[in-house]
Amino acid sequence: MRSIVFLASTLWTAQPAIASAEAAPPAAAPVALAKPTAADLGALPFMNLPALSPDGTRMAARGHIEGRTVMVVSTFSATDTTSVTLPLPADHQVEWYRWAGDGKLLVSISRLSRFEGEEVRLTRVVVIDIATSSTIVAGPKTQGMDGDDVIYVDPAGAYILLSTQATIYDYPSVHRIELATGKSRQIVAQAQYVWRWFADASGVVRGGIGQTGGNWWVVYRSAADAPFKRTIQRKAGGGGTEVDRFEPTTGQDSGYAVATSPAGRFSLYRYDFRTDALGALVYENPAVDIDDYDIDASGKLRAVYYTDEHGMVEWFDPALKSFQARLNKALPGSIVRIVSTNRDRTRYLVWAGGSDDPGSYFLFDKTTNVLAHAFTPFDRLADKQLAPMKPVRYKARDGLEIRGYLTLPPGRDAKNLPLIVMPHGGPFARDALGYDPWVQYLASKGYAVLQPNFRGSTGFGKAFVERGTGAWGRGMQDDIDDGAKWLASSGVADAKRVCIMGASFGGYAAMWAAARNPDIYRCAISFAGISDVGSMLRYDRRQFSAPRYFSDWRERVAGDRNFQLDQISPLSAVDRMTVPILIAHGSKDSNVPMSQSRRLHEALTKAGRAHDYVIYEGEGHGFDKPENSVDFLERVGRFLDKHNPA
């Protein structure tokens, strides 16, 4: 097992950090960097996305070892750092993880299952005891499909509160799970149409949100021994206020709520549960929705998080705001984020990087005032030439402004370039400025890459998301196409050398483009794409909905109750697929079943349509084995060399 070596890199003292200019040696000539290869960019991080334990003595991270996704836990001592891998059930994907006290780790896992003849996605929470490496599955023995909605974690790690359905025919109830034994008992019964429950900082379930028929309401109680009372019913949509989540303050009938502002952006408000009303506006970003916020146990706001061009934070804690400024000064030229802290805020994990720098993690110890390099997840790229990504904006054909990102190949003029359009997954998600190995690979081969945040993309306000209603395969696809046309009309891209590539919904968009717009695209590449929209939505509606904006998921896809989803399904348009297409998928994908690609491959084969097709055995909705990650990039390279050479 690879250990982590910590090297002191920055001492924050009053002493000067560098010598005077007169004493400095002459600068060395810049060294030309080599282009990254598929092997460089396909290499998986041995460790990534770390989180400190509450006491700050351990760090958990997702790792890739011998073709498996594992949890890696590193323990710090005064003289050394040791790391161990923790077991996870086979054939499962890791969705998220977080600490429960100092000695236990919660990990959400998912896998493929079947229900009434249909493929379905099943999630559960695994509890790992660090000392013994033993695992238990949290929750009652009988659960529905979604079993990872943890609404509270005891700071000491004794128990968690889990909102889960007994069966798919029930509404969620809340269970207290003892983490030492796995014993479960129901503490809040299901309530009709209430799909989300919320707890305060002391672990008391204080409220829930009910939704049905386009209406929503709140159920609330002031204490654990009080009955829940239902508020007035409101109509969802129509420009009215929508509440995404609540945070009751312990011992009070007030708290916080994330809700839409009059401008239609999710913002942070005070909330009065007694009067069932929003209070004062605490924070609203002028351009985008907020993503999250952080409050302490007393209900005091520390920070609000949002994504403009990249992830940002608005600090309300003066000490943390000052600390962020010091970090920015110590790590100039990088996007710098505090990604994790311990309980008493004496240790901080910090990430610094950018779109052309996959970044490194640092550990700051307040007791020694040292910022030390922890690890670099993608160390093969340290001496490679990467391409910066820049924000762009263009108008769609109906005048809607689309925000996106453009990456240009290093060393080439921005004129008549071959172009790859790369729509994001979701589709109710968004792209942001940051390192992307697929983008960097394409840029290294000489392609410009456009990543459009088409209508329906989240983060830009409710109205922009609602423009995605009925836009699958239609308005969303128009926005993607219009980005390619915009770059061609501006002279950056060669209109005769455009291909499309994407994963998940982006894979769907690539499949659909091959049938819908062969006049625009010379070829298409789909990884884990969706060929049958109707069957995919039956499989897992959560994957392709935006619940914070609306819950009527099918109508948001179809736009019309009478609309037949096969009209926007690539599987039903095989006879129109006249451009070359590369189809790839992981055999164990629990987000988008491999059958979505297999069925399209079979239909294309039956129709006599030439295409490339590869299934990566044992892989999920991404890659766990570096050899497969590298192989996919190399296949993409050969495919483009043949059908759209740079």
TrEMBL record:
It holds the Pfam family Peptidase_S9. GO terms for molecular function: serine-type endopeptidase activity. Transmembrane segments: none annotated. This is Peptidase S9 prolyl oligopeptidase catalytic domain-containing protein. One of its GO terms (biological process) is proteolysis. Residues 1-19 form the signal peptide. InterPro entries: AB_hydrolase_fold, Peptidase_S9_cat. It comes from the Bacteria. The lineage of its organism: Bacteria, Pseudomonadati, Pseudomonadota, Alphaproteobacteria, Sphingomonadales. Residues 439-643 form the Peptidase S9 prolyl oligopeptidase catalytic domain. The keyword Signal applies. Keywords: Hydrolase, Signal. It comes from Sphingomonas sanxanigenens DSM 19645 = NX02. The keyword Nuclease does not apply.
